[in-house]
Amino acid sequence: MIETAEQIVMRFLRALWDGERDAAKATFAADAEWWFMPSLPYPRPMRAHDACDAVLDDMIAGFDPDVGLSIEVHAVMSNPDGEVAAEYSAISTTRAGVSYENRYVLRATVKDGRITCVRPYMDPNHLNSLIDETRGAT
Prior knowledge:
32% of the residues lie in helices and 37% in strands. The protein has helices at 5-17, 21-25, 48-59, 124-137, and strands at 28-34, 46-47, 70-78, 83-93, 99-111, 114-122. A six-stranded mixed beta sheet has the order 2-1-6-5-4-3.
């Protein structure tokens, strides 16, 4: 059975949320791009494989492993051209004990069974605080 674009994007997101670096990267085309919001401390566009490392090292690693990361998926939709949108909430506690809650919409393009472009949208203030905290801990 062939995976739908929605299934590919959700497989990517679940791998990312679970910290499964290789599985998340395996969903990308070789030339895939990741477009961070302008206020986040990353280049735009960024090679998706490198962006995946940044998300795991600067963001996901900032959450308290004893608390975990709670994700609630609210909606996933796509069009016949392989454009997928996923809306979800993330709730956790940072390693410093600060509560974290943010809502996301991730837009991704899937072609030939691989993600070619990722564009996440969220409240960047919450995310920048997490990045600053995580980078300061290293």
